[in-house]
Amino acid sequence: MSNNMDMTKLVAQLNEKQKQISQQLYFGNEQMRGLAKRVWRVQEDERKHIARELHDGVGQLLTALINQLQQVQKGDPTIALSESIDLARQALSDTRVISRLMRPRILDDLGLIPALEWLVRIMGEPEEAEIEFHHQINTEIDSDTQTLAFRVIQEALTNAIKHAQAKTITLNVIATSKLLMIKIADDGVGMPLDTEDNPDGFGLGAMRDRVSAFGGQLTINSSPNQGCEIKVLVTGREMS
């Protein structure tokens, strides 16, 4: 009798354990599907952004250039050819900037640190923001992780300069064989807690999803008029 009761109890425990494992698998699959959907949304948002930049920037410059050249062709003396050349140069410059920001060749050719030094320079100069860049890289970093670091930092600097009007930004990057740590701190206007919670707020959701796809964590410390600190930590995987 006692053996039957023990067996019944054991079967019940096994059934309960199986039920828990099934639930964990279900929630794990749901999380993976949710993450895949958010990553897909990030890619679509980036495509929309690039399309808008091309249409509103380069597209309008080329339209103006065509109109000026047509006036020159008609012999309009009020149109100086030098103005058309300036428009063409501006369109070429904007195209190069968009191209480099989509996938800077320097990231593939020279690696993460030179790419970040370039990014810091081109983002700081036009807006007169001072960006201090410190790094300690003690390992080779694989291409995917370099891309992750570059994109997260690019998004964070854009937020700090464009949205938070920061004038001083500090960027720290540390990498060992099993750890990547990125910290971006600024003196901007900060953000309310509801913006932080909003997955679409200032691209924070996109950054968080990028980091989650690598098994990492992104934390934000900010409040209105108190600046913002974004910290990314990816551990437990070989970086090279």
UniProtKB/TrEMBL annotation:
Q: Which organism is it from?
A: Cognaticolwellia beringensis
Q: Which domain of life is it from?
A: Bacteria
Q: Provide the alphabetized UniProt keywords.
A: ATP-binding, Kinase, Nucleotide-binding, Phosphoprotein, Transferase, Two-component regulatory system
What GO cellular component entries does it have? membrane
**Reaction(s) this enzyme catalyzes, per UniProt:** ATP + protein L-histidine = ADP + protein N-phospho-L-histidine
PANTHER family referenced in this protein's UniProt entry, alphabetically: NITRATE/NITRITE SENSOR PROTEIN NARX-RELATED, NITRATE_NITRITE SENSOR PROTEIN NARQ
Q: Which SUPFAM superfamilies match?
A: ATPase domain of HSP90 chaperone/DNA topoisomerase II/histidine kinase
EC number(s): the record gives: 2.7.13.3
Q: Which Pfam families match?
A: HATPase_c (PF02518), HisKA_3 (PF07730)
Q: What is this protein called?
A: histidine kinase
